[in-house]
Amino acid sequence: MNAQNESMADSMTMVQQLARGELSVKARLGYVALLLVSTAMTVGLLSLWLTEAFLPLRAHLAFGVMSLIGIAWAALSIWALATRRVLFARDRLIAGRMSVAFTALFLAGAIVAVFISGNAAALGAAATGAVMFAIALRVLTGARRRYMELAMLRAELESQLAH
Amino acid sequence: MNLKSPLPDPRADALLAVRCQLGERGAFDDLIARWHEPLWRYLRRLSNNDDAARDLAQDTWLRVFRGIARLREPAKLRPWLFGVARNVAMDRLRAHYTAGPQADVDLEELPATDDVNLEEEFATLEAGLANLPIVERETLTLFYLRELSLEEIAGLVSVPVGTVKSRLFRARQMLRRVMEGLES
């Protein structure tokens, strides 16, 4: 029995170590940042690519490859956030705020570019930026609602257990 | 022999699950402290082997960390945890049989007993359990450790409550026969 208990205790130590790596907040939010940056980069590239009328073949190729790279990074971060570094309510709240701040900055930059240059690429980026900003607001609202639901449930359970 | 311990308040488990879903780091420490031992013992009984139980427990916890945010009913933490552990064990068993006899983890054919000094009654029970087929061993383990109710076991193994009862009845008879054999 002692050997079994020792084995169980060893196993618990390993699980505690596993938890430290697996539950890192930095890693989760890192993937959120990667998703935001890669999406913004891809949107910017696509806006430029699709609105330039006359481009040599090699420029088309370069835009295509860079856009694919951006999409691949975005896909990787979505996959990681969905399966490996799933966001908890508190993380979702932070991720939502990050998304709103980042997309607001992107949208503001694109609007300034529209006023300064007035070209179609800036207009396209601003339109996509507005959509991204709306999505980010929605994500933040959902994250807030979920956090409040869980916080209320927690308070209710704590109060029930206290009595 | 009475292995039954008082059932914990299910609201305490629900609170633990909610704290984890909120993302409180300390809640995960509490979750591990509360549930590692029951899960490890369950997996140990399924695998009959300390090393296999350790590997299975790690995989189980990995899935728990990645899946608890999506747990819809925090009050069902207990059956959910055992469900995850069971799925991990069954996946390993399936992989073993698919891979053939060269697989490194043999859940069914590993030595049934350990050469350690067990307390007499517990040793007999452990050895008796280890000699049961996996279905009966699992049912007895889940029920007599008082971790799960008949309804929870039924939900976990996807069979009607009546089937769990009949498995339990059959398992008790088999265990009695095995233990009589061991004691004589």
Outline the structure in words.
The complex is a heterodimer of chains A (163) and B (184). By secondary structure, chain A is an all-alpha fold. Chain A has one domain (23-162). Chain A is 91% helix and 0% strand. Chain B has one domain: Orthogonal Bundle (Rna Polymerase Sigma Factor, Chain: A). Helices cover 71% and strands 0% of the residues of chain B. In chain B, helix 2 (25-47) packs across helix 4 (77-99), helix 4 runs parallel beside helix 7 and helix 6 crosses helix 8. Classes of the chains: A mainly alpha (163), B mainly alpha (184). The A-B interface holds A 1-4, 7-8, 10-12, 14-16, 18-19, 22-23, 25, 83-84, 86-91, 147, 150-151, 153-154, 157-158, 160-161 and B 9, 11-12, 14-15, 18-25, 28-29, 32, 36-37, 40-41, 44, 50, 53-54, 57-58, 61-62, 65-67, 69-70, 74, 114, 116-119, 122-123.
What would the keywords be for this entry?
heterodimer, A: 163 residues, mainly alpha, B: 184 residues, Rna Polymerase Sigma Factor, Chain: A, 8 helices
